[in-house]
Structure formats: C-alpha cells, structure tokens
Amino acid sequence: MEERIVVALRREGLIAPPKRRRWVSGVAAAAALIACLAVGAMLIRSGTGGRPEALYLLALHSGDTYAPAAPGVRASEYGQWARGRSEAVVDGAELSGHPLILGSASGAKSPVSGYFIIRAATAEEAEAIARTVPHLRYGGTVVVRRIVR
Question: What is the fold of 54-146?
Fold first, then answer.
C-alpha cells in the first residue's frame, strides 16, 4: 500500500523521483581504470609482456666430479653465459671461503659454490635455462628452486 501512495504522489508532482547517483558509478569506473593501468604498467616494467613469472634460484654445487676451467676462463665463461641471458638472469655470484655448516651436515656433501637468480614463467622454462649453465659441462650440479615471495 505504501508503494502505491508514493507512486501516486510522484504522478501528481508532489514528490520528486529519487536522484540517481551517477557520480558513484563514475568514481567506480575511474578506480577500475586506474587499477588496470597500474597493473599493465607493472607488467611492462617487469618485462613479462603480460605473462606471470617467478624467480628461481640456480644453486651451483661443485662435488667430487667437478673439474673447473682455470679461474679466469671460468669467470669469463659464466659471465658471458649470464650476459647472454640478461632477460632472465637477475643476479649471480661465485661463493668463496670454507662454508660454515650449521645443523645436520648430512645434506652438505657438496656445498653451494655459486648461484644465479633467474626469472622464468614456468618451472619448465627455469629448467631449460638451468640446463645451459656452464657449470654442468665441468661435472658440477645445478639445483633449481622456486623462490617464494
């Protein structure tokens, strides 16, 4: 019954129809546009071209079978490898000194001797990159691990 009275009063011009709040939908549309632009800019800056990526650690282990080239040659070769994959390689370094191993040493038969951090869209892509690391040619081992952020 109340609804009929309101309709009749509006028809007679005694009460105005409710004002639509167009500004609310305008603000919501603007906020959505800004969010889309921000996400797009982040993807462009990260170089992903819109594909999701993750970071992976390539841990280089030098065990009993590792027979490296001369230090200068090795540094040059590994550096050249990293520069050739600059779209994927984020960081890397050779580690020096005797490792300090805390806790159970059962898993430390071949300590990490160096590392690379790479970007890859999938674990398969990370593995494909890892298979090209010069360390493998010298009998070393490369362990690939996804970095959780």
Answer: Alpha-Beta Plaits (3.30.70)
